[in-house]
């Protein structure tokens, strides 16, 4: 195979592609869509983060504004945790519009994350949101298929291929040159999105400590480059193996429909059928049932906590909780919080395991579907996938538990041992302790976690690239000019 000939066929493809007005129209429309998606993504990111930061600030002000109060009442007063949008979510929306972004944090209860964008939107959201990732993963493939479906088959029909082969050209040179030519066109469409994203990371209204956003952007860039390369080769392969341009176009459209719509929807339905999830009511009932079975810290006659009281009195060598060197009510609340948090985590982990199995059914289709592979990579590295949502839940629960236990420790230390309830204005802790407890701050998921989550998609895309070029090489030995 001669590189000069490969370059010659690539340039010939580009010359023919830009000879017609079609590509300019497509490029113009795509640029307009890119501009709209970029403005929408950046605006949504900036506005949502500004709103959530403001609500987080107000929640903190409300917490600190509490006067001297009994710590247990503060534990039930609680606070809020708001999920911040990550910088690259302006590129890929993922599932963020369908998951909540705020949760109320209080003692003894693990509340659901609420206030999703979908909950406040019209039904049009079900048709998807126009993002730059959507343009690359759904719209651009159609454009490439449209530009590449007739590249080889039309030259076979008009006899050009026979002339080229008779003059010494090789099939491998022709196919590779045309595939690279289509790939260059794909990069031309891709370039504005890359430029906009880079400019946003440099000049956008984002935190100064954006951390590994550039590393995430690099993986996103390389992942989509590989994806577009696979599509370019696939277009040429289908064009070469088809007997007519019409058949080639129908085949490529069928592939797009199969991999973009049918396979993902089918995998999702299969996952839901194989691994059904309990209803919200049954989940909450199961948690409450186990908590009551283990022991209710608010019930003075609970057998478990009565045994605990006897053991505490024995250890300290006293006859009554009023003789203990700490407030026994705070001690009971602390132990009750440990128990309820442990039981909730057990049930929550079990529920997440079901969701993980459901998602795995779809994720494993990435081995056969490059569209799913690049989607999984895109969501993982922008923090808009299910793992990113679960990571926020974990951070919020950790903060909630620390807040509740800090209030219990304050009760044990500062409230007298003889005090049995939280009523009145005497048995209180000074307001300065509320200010000392730090505010909630949502941190982005670790890069290593994103790499692990997207590993199957990454290896799948690499495998598709290898498979595509091996298929191109095999086809070059079997293809015919007639």
Automatic annotation (TrEMBL):
InterPro entries given in the database record: DUF3526
What are the GO cellular component annotations? plasma membrane
Regions crossing the membrane: 21-39, 134-154, 175-202, 214-237, 249-267, 454-475
Q: Which GO terms describe its molecular function?
A: ABC-type transporter activity
Q: Which UniProt keywords apply?
A: Membrane, Transmembrane, Transmembrane helix
What protein name does the entry list?
A: DUF3526 domain-containing protein
């Amino acid at each position: 195979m001669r590189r000069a000939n490969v370059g010659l066929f690539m340039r010939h493809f580009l010359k023919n592609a830009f000879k017609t007005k079609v590509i300019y129209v497509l490029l113009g429309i795509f640029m307009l869509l890119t501009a709209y998606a970029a403005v929408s993504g950046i605006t949504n990111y900036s506005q949502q983060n500004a709103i959530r930061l403001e609500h987080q600030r107000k929640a903190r002000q409300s917490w600190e504004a509490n006067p001297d109060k009994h710590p247990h009442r503060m534990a039930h007063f609680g606070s809020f945790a708001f999920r911040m949008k990550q910088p690259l979510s302006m590129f890929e929306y993922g599932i963020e519009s369908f998951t909540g972004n705020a949760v109320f944090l209080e003692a003894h209860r693990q509340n659901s994350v609420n206030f999703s964008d979908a909950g406040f939107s019209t039904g049009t959201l079900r048709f998807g949101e126009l993002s730059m990732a959507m343009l690359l993963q759904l719209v651009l493939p159609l454009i490439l298929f449209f530009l590449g479906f007739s590249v080889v088959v039309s030259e076979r029909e008009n006899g050009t291929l026979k002339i080229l082969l008779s003059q010494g050209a090789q099939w491998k040179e022709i196919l590779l040159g045309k595939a690279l030519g289509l790939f260059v066109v794909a990069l031309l469409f891709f370039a504005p999105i890359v430029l906009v994203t880079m400019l946003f990371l440099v000049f956008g209204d984002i935190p100064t400590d954006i951390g590994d956003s550039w590393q995430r952007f690099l993986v996103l860039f390389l992942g989509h480059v590989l994806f577009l390369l696979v599509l370019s080769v696939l277009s040429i392969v289908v064009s070469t193996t088809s007997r007519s341009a019409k058949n080639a176009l129908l085949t490529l459209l069928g592939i797009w429909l199969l991999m973009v719509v049918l396979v993902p929807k089918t995998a999702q339905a299969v996952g839901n059928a194989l691994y059904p999830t309990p209803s919200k009511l049954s989940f909450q009932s199961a948690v409450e049932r186990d908590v009551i079975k283990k022991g209710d810290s608010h019930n003075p006659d609970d057998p478990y906590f009565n045994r605990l009281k006897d053991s505490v009195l024995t250890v300290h060598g006293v006859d009554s909780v009023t003789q203990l060197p700490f407030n026994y009510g705070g001690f009971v609340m602390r132990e009750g919080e440990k128990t309820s948090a442990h039981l909730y985590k057990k049930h929550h982990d079990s529920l997440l395991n079901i969701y993980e199995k459901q998602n795995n059914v779809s994720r494993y289709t990435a081995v056969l579907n490059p569209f799913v592979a690049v989607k999984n990579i895109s969501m993982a590295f922008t923090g808009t996938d299910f793992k990113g949502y679960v990571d926020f839940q974990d951070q919020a629960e950790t903060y909630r538990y620390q807040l509740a236990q800090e209030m219990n420790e304050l009760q044990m230390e500062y409230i007298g041992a003889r005090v049995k309830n939280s009523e009145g204005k005497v048995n209180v802790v000074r307001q300065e302790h509320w200010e000392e407890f730090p505010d909630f701050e949502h941190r982005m998921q670790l890069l290593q976690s994103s790499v692990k989550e997207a590993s199957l998609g990454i290896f799948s895309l690499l495998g598709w690239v290898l498979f595509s070029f091996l298929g191109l090489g095999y086809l070059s030995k079997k293809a015919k000019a007639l």
